[in-house]
Amino acid sequence: MSHPTPTSPTQTSYDRRFWPDDHPVLPERKIGVLIMNLGTPDATDYWSMRRYLKEFLSDRRVIEANPIFWQILLNTVILTTRPFRSGKAYDLIWNREKDESPLRTITRNQSDKLAAAMAALGDHLVVDWAMRYGQPSVASVMAKLQAQGCDRLLLFPLYPQYSAPTMATAYDKAFDALKTMRWQPAVRTIPPYHEHPVYIGALAESIRTHLAALDWQPEVVLTSFHGLPRKYLEKGDPYHCQCAKTARLLRAKLNWSEDQMRLTFQSRFGPDEWLQPYTDKTVEALAKQGVRKLAIITPGFSADCVETLEEINGEAQEIFLEHGGEHFTFIPCLNDSQEGMKVIQAVVKNELKGWIG
Q1: pLDDT on residue 25
Q2: Is 0.70 surpassed by the pTM of this model?
Q3: Strand ranges (DSSP E) for the chain?
Q4: What is the spatial distance between Cα 166 and Cα 168, in angstroms, rounded to a whole number?
Q5: Is the link from the previous residue into 83 a cis peptide, with omega within 30 of 0?
Q6: Could you give the count of Cα atoms lying within 13 Å of 115 in the half-sphere of its Cβ?
Q7: pLDDT above 70 covers what percent of the chain?
């Protein structure tokens, strides 16, 4: 009696020759690529912001405080006032045309462009996107990919540097979804790509292109990364080291000195000490020291969002100009630019080896 040849890792069809007549119909085998970003509120009003912030700030990896104390503080104080302030910040950068945040627009574009670029590999490769907090949820998109026949899934949180509150939370959400599946797909996860040559090259090219369009040149360029409580570093989180390596490699790529390109951290929250030096304090100090021309790039963000468009291009710019600065420029994230998509494609193709020919 002959037996069917086992399917290879790159085979996309089931061998149906020996299936019984009553075998359930299965879709063709596919490979799913799920890109994930932090998240976004659905709107800028109080209740939309409150729902988003509650989900975000209830994550135990994001806030590692005593859960009982934190939930009391969160629900009685923070979620009473912060939605108003955050809503105003989001309203300043909101995509009016699509009625959504720039992060949602850009992440969708990244997914669409990745799908188009990977189409040459065959229609068995499916690309989709989800948000860790908010919609579309990771669980809903994973279920959608599974229903399309994806029995292999590459999870890609768009964070170049690893930290527990970012990349790990995205994987947590995906693993929670896997727990509910009767037939789980095989899963791969993306490692941090903070030192990937294509990523460093893309950042350098974005800086060169942006500065070439100015009629002035900055005296100092800050590489501003999202902050993290210092105690997370002390517990073993590698984020600080990976941010420092990205900044060092980028500086070397541009052949700049440490005085020309400096590492800072932004977006601190609460009373604890966070990774230093702080971006806002550094911006103020530079202006007071006589620096008149400043540029800031945010290499840890894969897409422009409220932390880059409002906090850096808005608040940081105001601080610099108010304290004596004269020229300020924000260098956008890689987003869905040609250079940005080269990075995403390079990482995905490398991690799909063995699944695609």
Answers
A1: 65
A2: yes
A3: 30-40, 125-134, 150-157, 186-189, 220-226, 261-266, 293-297, 327-331
A4: 6
A5: no
A6: 15
A7: 92
